[in-house]
Amino acid sequence: MSLSLRVERAHKISRCVFPPRRSTRVSVARGFPAAALLLCLLSACGNLAGPDYERPAAPEKALWSGDEFVRVDAAETIRPDWWRNFNDPYLDGLIERAVSENIDLKILAARSGVAEAAISQANAARLPTVDASLGGRVQGSEGGPTSTSVSQAAAIGWELDIWGKAKKGVQAQQASFRATEADWRAGYLTLASEVSSTYFQIRRFDEQLGRQRLALQRNEQIAGIYAGLHDEGLIPKTRLLQQEAEVNSLRKELLELRRLRALSENALATLLGIPAGDLAIPSGRLSDSVELFAVPGGLPADLLSRRPDIVAAEYRVLEAHELVGQARLAQLPSISLTAGTGTTSDALTSLLSGFAFGLTPTVSIPIFDPAVAARLKVSEASTRVVEEEYRKTVIRAFEEVENALVNLASRREQRVEIEALRDKLRVVADQVQAQLQEGMVSQLELLESERSVLAAEQALLANKQLILNDTVALYKALGGGWPEEVVRSMDDTAARR
Q1: Which of 80, 137, 387, 467 gives 20 to 30 Å between its CA and that of 205?
Q2: pTM for this structure?
Q3: CA separation (Å) from 61 to 266, 301, 393?
Q4: How far is 176 from 189, CA to CA, in rounded Å?
Q5: What is the pLDDT of residues 444-494, one digit of tens each?
């Protein structure tokens, strides 16, 4: 705490313990000075709301999978618009559109607006209230005179926040607002990840459809050759039927790929805030449109302060902490000031002639109020819930990072093996092609070797999509380049300035 803040607090305490005489004479009624002095003495007895906020204890992560990963600063490893590393302008446009039109993101923004407005509502408890009234009365009897009277009155009520109970409510609502802001950032990150993964899936389906048509064409040619060999009595009927069944299977897979692409396109439309069926993504090849890139060789050491979901969970712990403090302060006496003024007159023109004013200080001491104690127990129990939810969020974050690292490393190793397999099959296919020209092999053998190459290329395509998805998952798990945010209470923040 700074020297100026300490001096100011000491000054307030001294004024409370030894109140000025003028203030005592004007503001207190009979029987009130003793209670007021007691309250002032209590205010000097430390922090009655409880200990200062501290981040809940949570498991720590010292080592990560992969020897190539080291602990470095997040700002040096992850750019906020990390998806641009894929070097696909069409994907960039989709994410920009999704951020502006996605319904879920708009809902999160609206909830944040509600939480922000609630801060003013909570702050209203610290302000005085003013009520005014104007009335009239007509009185008479049959055959007698009639009398009229007009009255007006105004009243001011103010509960003095001497303990900081209302302030704690404001701080709790501020923490709730910051949590909703973090929820929006988490939604933003999830949206960018889902748009990217869905787009990769569509591009994979497009390329698979092209290769599936080629594979179907090759197998239909093989089936034709088998039919000729069967007619000549060179192969049994079962071999021909097996090949025809393979053709039927490829046709079924082709139809399934078309269905899956349409569903992925519908899912992407929903993410963009477009009715399903109204979005048409032009055909493209995953191999041509999206680039693989090296993941930053470092894992941030400040994961807990950058992941939006963890930040949101901690702000909710802070909110619960402030509500516990408010519940504790509710057990202390409260001081209210009530001031009233009014006039009454038989004529509206002389309404101000009978002016009256009154000031009433009131001390309310909760000697026995079960609701106050129950509220404190509920607040403390709620705090334990959100603390455990915070720890759960941290544990889940560690799992997501580890899974992304393991998957990414494994898929990259698999890619090396698949590429080696494809290259060897291509060599075989080239040799069979050369042998066919020399009449050493049949056309059937060439088609079967080409089919093997197509299968390896399909596996390589699927592997690329998995690597892209794992890359997206890793960036999401690491917080997506979001800046560090340290959760502090309002008092703690002020003390650090």
Answers
A1: 80
A2: 0.79
A3: 39, 9, 14
A4: 20
A5: 788 888 888 888 998 999 999 999 999 999 889 888 878 778 888 766 655
